[in-house]
């Protein structure tokens, strides 16, 4: 027993002894044991669970099924049987799956007496699938008589045989030559109102031919057809074989004619019907000839036709009879394994799956060869990969016997279709069996893990593949490198790069280009740049493509200075960026106000890529327009026209946007005229800028005209055009025009969408029309549309500012009901409204609901509310708000901490105040000088002078200048405590930063020192020296003192 197994067992026993069994704990434990196939332990734990009364829930029923399945598949049928007995004893009903597993286990062991006693013991019959399996197995091992006995025993228990049950007995009866019994079973089928299966009729027809009763074969066929049973190709093969065996070739021709009528064969009227029959049976029509005996004495005649002509066969009679007899024998009991393989070989996978289902109904076992062929065929399919999983789950023992070629294909198919977890399980099984795993298998698995797996799994299987000397092909490497970069597995990507460079030295430049491109497009341009520098040091020459990747990457990452640096380096090397990099770079150079470089790059591109002149000019034009250089843009546009370039819609839209930005109304009008004449469409971006420009200039009517133009000519949804118009009209306070627009929208039958409502709510609120804003907000919410956070924020703020707190609270309640988060501004507005009405407890309750209902956004800021609650003395709530901010990853500002410290100082809770002070410093927040002052003075008042002094010193150490009051508080406290040396030290420190002590403090300190001197007679000189020094350092020298006495 392994150590982990021992641990699990000990843990289980401990739970038992302490009576700590919990259903979910046992559940997890059992699932683990089943997963690890710890059969004996799983059995023990489950039996303990039953003893303790667990096992009634649906989840525990699944666990019960898993345990029974594990026991049966491990060959421990008796243990599984004991589990079922226990479960029945506590009132649970075993599922069909459980009973079938036990029945299957007994069948595999051929313990049929035990299987019968099992069903008698549990007083339950087998279901039809289990019953058919048992009947089929009995027939093949002990014959139909024994099988019939078991069926009758099962019927006494309540078993209901179906047409397949009797079909099994019909086939085996025919095989045993008991044709009478076979017809009895057919009669039983019909008497029970069941419909015989086509395979049963095939067996009966075959049986009558073998018994020489060929005259009755066609009658059985007609009865079959009249009963609504469609004959299949096997039916006609039996008829052909039987008639060929009986030498009834006229009937053979009739049968072939029937096949033609049903579309099973296609032959011309001139062709020999007998030849077609021989081909269907697998005989060579050139080697089998039916000839007439023209001899007077019929010396060669073997049989006669319907006209009395003597005929004989010219062929190898032994081979002929063996073939037709074989067809008849094989047709008695359907061989579904052969049928499955045949369908897979011709690519009819759906038919193969149907045969697999039929195989289960007929109680037959799937062979390893049929499973192998099926798995390979399904793996090659684009749509049936899920069927493989279902198939393998039904035959786990066979699945563990599949060869490595099939399993490699299976892993690849799973991973390509996105079933990476299933692929991993198969590959893990292959490793346990020490099978060879192909390079393609590792590659597809790693690619799949890049897309769907966890990073840890990817790293584990990457290391496994590397240890097995795996190296994918060049094309696979390209795809894999990109995926590794996306997963941030740069170390592995570079390792793969090195291996590729060694393995494919002839593609060195292409490989470098690949890794640089992948690094740049996945946001790792800096690493790509370092690689380029390394390659340069190794004297390897890279072309312009590598540097172009760097430019594209840096621009994508908004690191424009690095992109410009790479560009300058390329110019120094006489390299030209690729066209796409150049187009991006031109626009960015313009944005950086490096127009000379942008123009120079344009000239270079025109020289290197003359066929892309329009794209290059457009890029520069775009740069000019974005930077408000409308004059330069207009000049460049004229240059383009002079060069014969035909600007497209995109160029005209750039110019429109540029002139709108430059507020050039005349140019905007001219461009619009040209676009209308040339039937060019305005883009939505241009329309948005035009409307904004015109509304801000007060030209609302022109903006409305542009709207009409867009509605007529643009392919964008009309509601988007209206929404833009509504937004800018409201932004500029044109409410009357908005109402007109809304009427127009309604007339056209356009339903307002979420964006329209949101613009109306926000816009009317900003215009001060709260009634309209609330009207559309109410309509929006009633239609289950969600307003934007911005709209909710501005509406609630306005309602609170106008004193309409109840309406704000009603809106907040609607938000709560829908689980909409309340941002900082919304909470601040509502809390401020409640506090202004003296509703302090309601404010706290509101904040508590926000927490309980999870309505607090990640970017919450409670700094203002922390200060407010501190002001009301509600320090606990202020601390709660601070903790919420910290949990959300937001650090409160120094004012919040200052407020809390002040609050705790006011309550004389100095330890809590110091905790927040320490935390504040740890977060690199600077306490205000008032906070230091409060702390020092409060500590002094509470007699904690040493700590007050430490705070004083700390404030100096972090660069703060303590107040005069802070020094005086500590000095006076030390003086009160008669700690004159400390008081003196602080007095000197106070004077060093420019503060003069007040006379009272100073004289009191001198008096105390004098009294101390009088008491100390033995050290008069020393005391005098100290006092003199103190007076001198305090600004009172002897000279001044004597002069004062003279006056």
Oligomeric composition of the shown chains: single chain
Termini separation:
108 Å
Helix content: over 70%
Mean pLDDT: 83
Count of extended strands = 3
Strand count, sense and barrel status of the largest sheet are: 3 strands, antiparallel
Radius of gyration: 47 Å
Sheet with the most strands: spatial strand order? 1-3-2
Low-confidence regions? 1015-1028, 1033-1047
SS-based class: mainly alpha
Q: How many DSSP helices?
A: 59
Could you name the key traits of this structure?
repeat; 72% helix; single chain; disordered C terminus; TPR_mt; three-stranded antiparallel sheet; mainly alpha; 1047 residues; Pentatricopeptide repeat-containing protein-mitochondrial domain-containing protein
Give your account of this protein's structure.
Keywords: Repeat. This is Pentatricopeptide repeat-containing protein-mitochondrial domain-containing protein. The chain is an all-alpha fold and 1047 residues long. Helices cover 72% and strands 1% of the residues. The chain contains 59 helices and three strands. Strands 1-3-2 form a three-stranded antiparallel beta sheet, with no helix packed on it. Strand 2 and strand 3 (310-314) form a beta hairpin. Helix 10 (163-175) runs parallel beside helix 12 (198-210).
């Amino acid at each position: 027993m392994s150590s982990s197994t021992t641990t699990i067992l000990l843990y289980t026993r401990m739970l038992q002894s302490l009576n700590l069994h919990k259903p979910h704990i046992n559940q997890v434990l059992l699932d683990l044991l089943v997963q690890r196939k710890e059969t004996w332990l799983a059995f023990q734990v489950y039996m303990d669970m039953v003893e303790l009364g667990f096992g009634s829930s649906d989840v525990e029923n699944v666990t019960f099924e898993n345990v029974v399945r594990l026991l049966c598949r491990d060959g421990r049928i008796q243990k599984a049987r004991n589990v079922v007995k226990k479960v029945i004893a506590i009132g649970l009903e075993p599922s069909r799956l459980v009973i079938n597993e036990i029945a299957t286990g007994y069948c595999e062991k051929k313990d049929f007496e035990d299987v019968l006693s099992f069903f008698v013991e549990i007083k339950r019959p087998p279901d039809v699938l289990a019953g058919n399996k048992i009947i089929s197995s009995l027939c093949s091992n002990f014959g139909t008589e024994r099988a019939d006995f078991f069926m009758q025993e099962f019927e006494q228990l309540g078993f209901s045989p179906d047409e397949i049950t009797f079909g099994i007995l019909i086939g085996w009866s025919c095989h045993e030559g008991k044709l009478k019994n076979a017809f009895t079973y057919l009669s039983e089928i019909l008497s029970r109102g069941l419909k015989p299966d086509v395979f049963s009729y095939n067996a009966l027809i075959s049986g009558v031919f073998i018994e020489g009763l060929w005259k009755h074969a066609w009658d059985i066929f007609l009865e079959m057809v009249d009963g609504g049973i469609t004959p299949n190709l096997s039916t006609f093969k039996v008829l052909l074989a039987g008639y060929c065996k009986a030498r009834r070739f006229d009937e053979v021709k009739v049968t072939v004619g029937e096949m033609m009528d049903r579309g099973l064969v296609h032959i011309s009227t001139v062709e020999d019907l007998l030849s077609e029959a021989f081909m269907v049976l697998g005989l060579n029509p050139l080697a089998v000839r039916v000839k007439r005996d023209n001899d007077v004495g019929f010396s060669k005649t073997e049989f006669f036709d319907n006209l009395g002509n003597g005929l004989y066969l010219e062929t190898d009679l032994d081979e002929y009879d063996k073939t037709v007899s074989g067809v008849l024998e094989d047709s008695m009991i359907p061989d579904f394994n052969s049928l499955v393989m045949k369908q897979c070989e011709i690519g009819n996978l759906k038919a193969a799956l149907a045969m697999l289902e039929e195989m289960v109904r007929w109680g037959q076992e799937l062979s390893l060869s049929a499973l192998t062929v099926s798995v390979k065929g399904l793996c090659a399919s684009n749509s049936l990969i899920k069927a493989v999983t279902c198939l393998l789950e039904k035959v786990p023992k066979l699945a563990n016997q599949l060869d490595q070629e099939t399993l490699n294909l299976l892993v690849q198919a799973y991973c390509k279709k996105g079933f990476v977890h299933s692929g991993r399980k198969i590959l893990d099984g292959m490793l346990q069996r020490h099978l060879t795993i192909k390079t393609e298998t590792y590659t597809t698995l790693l690619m799949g893990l890049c897309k769907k797996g966890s990073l840890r799994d990817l790293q584990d299987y990457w290391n496994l593949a590397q240890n097995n000397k795996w190296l994918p092909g060049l094309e696979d490497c390209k795809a894999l490198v990109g995926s590794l970069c996306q997963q941030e597995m740069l170390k592995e990507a570079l390792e793969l790069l090195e291996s590729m460079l060694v393995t494919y030295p002839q593609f060195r430049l292409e490989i470098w280009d690949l890794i640089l491109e992948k690094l740049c497009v996945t946001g790792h341009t800096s690493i790509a740049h370092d690689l380029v520098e390394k390659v340069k040091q190794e004297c390897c020459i890279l072309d312009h493509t590598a540097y172009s990747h760097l430019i594209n990457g840096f621009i994508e990452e908004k690191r424009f200075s690095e992109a410009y640096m790479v560009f300058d380096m390329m110019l120094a090397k006489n390299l030209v960026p690729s066209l796409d990099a150049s187009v991006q770079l031109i626009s960015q150079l313009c944005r950086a106000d490096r127009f000379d470089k942008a123009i120079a790059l344009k000239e270079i591109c025109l020289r290197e890529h003359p066929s892309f002149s329009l794209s290059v000019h457009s890029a520069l034009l775009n740069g000019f327009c974005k930077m408000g250089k409308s004059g330069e843009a207009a000049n460049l546009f004229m240059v383009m026209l002079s060069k014969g370039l035909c600007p497209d819609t995109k160029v005209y839209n750039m110019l429109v946007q540029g002139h709108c930005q430059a507020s050039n109304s005349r140019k905007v009008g001219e461009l619009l005229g040209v676009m209308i004449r040339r039937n060019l469409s305005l883009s939505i971006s241009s329309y948005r800028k035009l409307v904004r420009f015109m509304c801000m200039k007060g030209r609302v009517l022109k903006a409305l005209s542009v709207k009409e133009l867009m509605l007529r000519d643009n392919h964008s949804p009309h509601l988007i055009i209206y929404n833009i118009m509504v937004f800018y009209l409201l932004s500029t306070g044109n409410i009357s025009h908005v109402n007109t627009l809304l009427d127009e929208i309604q007339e056209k039958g356009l339903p307002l969408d979420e964006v329209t409502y949101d613009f109306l709510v926000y816009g009317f609120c900003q215009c001060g029309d709260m009634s309209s804003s609330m009207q559309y907000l109410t309509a929006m919410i009633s239609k289950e549309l969600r307003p934007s956070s911005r709209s909710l924020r501005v509406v609630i703020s306005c309602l609170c500012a106008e004193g309409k707190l109840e309406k704000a609270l009603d809106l907040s309640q609607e938000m709560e009901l829908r689980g909409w988060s309340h941002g900082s501004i919304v909470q601040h507005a509502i809390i401020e409204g409640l506090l202004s009405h003296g509703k302090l407890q309601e404010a706290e309750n509101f904040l508590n609901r926000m927490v309980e209902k999870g309505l607090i956004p990640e970017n919450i800021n409670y700094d203002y509310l922390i200060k407010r609650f501190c002001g009301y003395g509600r320090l606990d709530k202020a601390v709660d708000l601070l903790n919420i901010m910290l949990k959300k990853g937001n650090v409160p500002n120094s004012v919040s901490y200052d407020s809390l410290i002040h609050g705790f100082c006011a309550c004389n809770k100095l330890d809590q105040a110091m905790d927040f002070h320490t935390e504040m410093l740890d977060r690199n927040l600077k306490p205000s000088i008032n906070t230091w002052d409060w702390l020092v003075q409060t500590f002094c008042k509470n007699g904690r002078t040493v700590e007050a002094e430490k705070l004083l010193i700390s404030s100096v150490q972090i660069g703060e200048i303590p107040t005069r009051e802070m020094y005086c508080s500590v000095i006076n406290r030390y003086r009160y405590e008669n700690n004159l040396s400390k008081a003196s030290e602080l007095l000197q420190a106070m004077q060093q930063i420019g503060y003069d002590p007040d006379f009272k403090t100073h004289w009191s300190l001198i008096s105390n020192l004098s009294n101390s001197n009088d008491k100390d007679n033995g050290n008069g000189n020393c005391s005098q020296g100290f006092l003199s020094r103190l007076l001198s350092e305090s600004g009172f020298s002897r000279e001044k003192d004597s002069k004062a006495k003279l006056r």
